[in-house]
Structures are given as C-alpha cells and as structure tokens.
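Async update (no meeting this week)

Hi team, since we skipped the sync, here's where things stand on the single-chain job. The sequence we agreed to prioritize is pasted below, unchanged from the tracker. I ran it this morning and attached the output directly underneath so nobody has to dig for it. Comments welcome in thread, and please keep replies under the output.
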Amino acid sequence: MTVRTSLVLSAVLLALAPTVLAQGKNKPPAPTANKKLFCWEEKGQRVCSDALPADVVNAARDEISATSGLRTGGVARAMSEEERAQAAVAAQQKMIDDAASEMRRRTDAAMLMSYRSEDELRRVFNERTAIVDNNVRTARYNAVSLREGLVSLLQTAGDHELAGRPIPAEMSATIHQRHAELLRTRRLQQSFEAQRAQLDVEITDILQRYRNMKGITAEAAEEAATPPTAPARN
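Output:
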C-alpha cells in the first residue's frame, strides 16, 4: 500500500513539474537592491538609462536608485588636460599664498608686540605714507606735464593741416610717443592712488590689532591721540 501511494505521488509530481517550471520562468526577477539609473544631458535633453554609454563616461551625470527613484549620487564632468593643469597650478598657488599669509600673520604679531607705544607704530606708518604720497604727487605732476606738452604738439599739427602743410614725420612720431607716455603715467598714477587708499585700510587694521594685543580700549586710544590742552596764560 505504501509503495502504491508513493508511485501515485511520483506520477502526480512528474505531471505537475512542467507547469511549475513554466511559472518559475515567467515570474519577473526580483529587483536588485543596488540597481542604478544614470541621467545626463545630451543635446539639451535629459537622458536616463540603466547602462552608461562609453561616449558619456566623462560627462556630468546623476545616479538614481532604481528601487526608490531617489538621487543617490552624482559625478561631475571630467576635466580636460588643460583644466587639470590649471587646477594643479591654482592648488599650488593657494598653498604658497596660505603659507605666505601665515608667515605675515606671525611676523606682524611679533612686530606689533615689539612697539612700546602706538606713537612708535604711527611713526612707521607716517614714513610709508609720505613715500606713497610723494609717488602720487609725482605721477600727477608728470601726467599734467605730458598732457600739456601733447596738447601743444596737437595744436601745432593742427596748424600745419589748416595751412595745407604736411605734418612732419618727426612731429607725428613725437605725438604718438607722448600719447603712449601719458597713458603709462596715468596708469601708474592710478596704481599709486590705489596703494594710498589701501594703505589707509591697512593702517586702520594694524592699529586695531595692536590695540587688541595690548588691551587698549578705543577710548584710551582716542585720549592718547588727543594733544594736551595748553594752559591759559594770565
């Protein structure tokens, strides 16, 4: 009896086997937890795919989870050889600038602490200010002088043209030379004036840092800068 039952069950299982296998083949595969979609811009259109074409490997793209539809990451556009070289130079320059800035900070701190009073510090600023002011005055004077000379030459050249006479080649060359010199002098003047304005900002900043290091209040600094009142004469 047991053998017969077993034979019957075996026959039933063999009969159902093709159906079970067919159902297993038609069943959709379970989504992979790490399945990703890639989205990028192509000819002004946003394109998404579960495979990344070879021609967009270096393009900027977003990575999206195929399970949740949420953005999980992204890749920036690959830099060109020239851009990588420029980035390396910029990074190196930043390291140099940072080191120089730190050195100036330490040097400034040591220098500021070496002054016994704010008056000593101001005397150093007065020397620097006098040099820059002199540069500004000289550049302004030279610019005015060159302009007046150029105007005189242009008037002479104009008189030649009005009289129907050709302008001498030497005069024409001098006019071009004076004009170029005037432009250079004006640029130099602007540079000196910018230095003078920056110097005022630098002086204010250094004085404030000196006062902070020395523990000098604004009221005490103002009082020290105010000259004493002379006693009244009878």
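Quick observations from my side:
The chain is about 70% helix and 10% strand.
Strands lie at 36-42, 45-49, 61-65, 71-75.
Reply here if anything looks off.
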